[in-house]
Design brief:
Layout (H helix, E strand, L loop, with lengths): L5 E3 L2 H38 L1 H4 L7 H42 L4 E3 L5 H29 L7 H12 L5
Antiparallel strand pairs: 1-2
Helix pairs in contact: 1-3, 3-4
């Protein structure tokens, strides 16, 4: 950290800033843990019960596979983001210890999540929402009664699409 990151503040403002920062950080990482739980649960249920949940002849199966992939990616991203939180806490504890040794109670050194780990935390909600959207679209396509597919209609659809100009 260079000297530009050091800010002089009063003891009261330091405590208030610390409380706000701790609360915001705790809420953010609690939210990421909830996404981890939802992604893990969704992926587990979808994969475990795929034979019972899927219609006999599903359409747009790629949307379901995409949602599986995106749930898995969101799980990995959350784990990396939580690793960044661990690093943040470690650095904050180290900085606090160094400040206590130096008896610099009126200075605070800004501690941030290392760059790449903060990017994981930013990407998590977008990947999770994309997985939910893909799963929702798969459900809409397959649960719409107007688009029910049976073996006969599937065979007819294949025949028609194979010969678009035949009568």
């Amino acid at each position: 950290m260079d000297n530009d990151d050091i800010v002089k503040i009063s003891e009261e403002n330091l405590k208030y800033y610390g409380q706000l920062n701790d609360e915001a950080t705790n809420e953010y990482y609690a939210w990421l843990r909830q996404i981890l739980t939802l992604s893990s649960g969704s992926l587990t249920v979808l994969v475990s019960f795929r034979n019972q949940i899927l219609p006999s002849y599903p359409k747009a199966i790629v949307l379901l596979q995409l949602s599986w992939f995106l749930f898995a990616v969101s799980i990995v991203l959350v784990l990396f983001a939580l690793r960044g939180h661990h690093i943040l806490l470690f650095h904050a504890a180290h900085d606090y210890y160094q400040a206590a040794i130096a008896q610099k109670k009126d200075t605070v050194q800004e501690t941030k999540v290392p760059g790449i780990y903060s990017k994981f935390g930013i990407a998590v909600p977008w990947v999770f929402v994309s997985a939910v959207v893909a799963l929702t679209l798969f459900g809409i396509v397959n649960l719409n009664p107007a688009t029910k597919t049976t073996p006969e209609t599937q065979k007819t659809q294949v025949t028609i699409s194979a010969h678009p100009y035949s009568k």
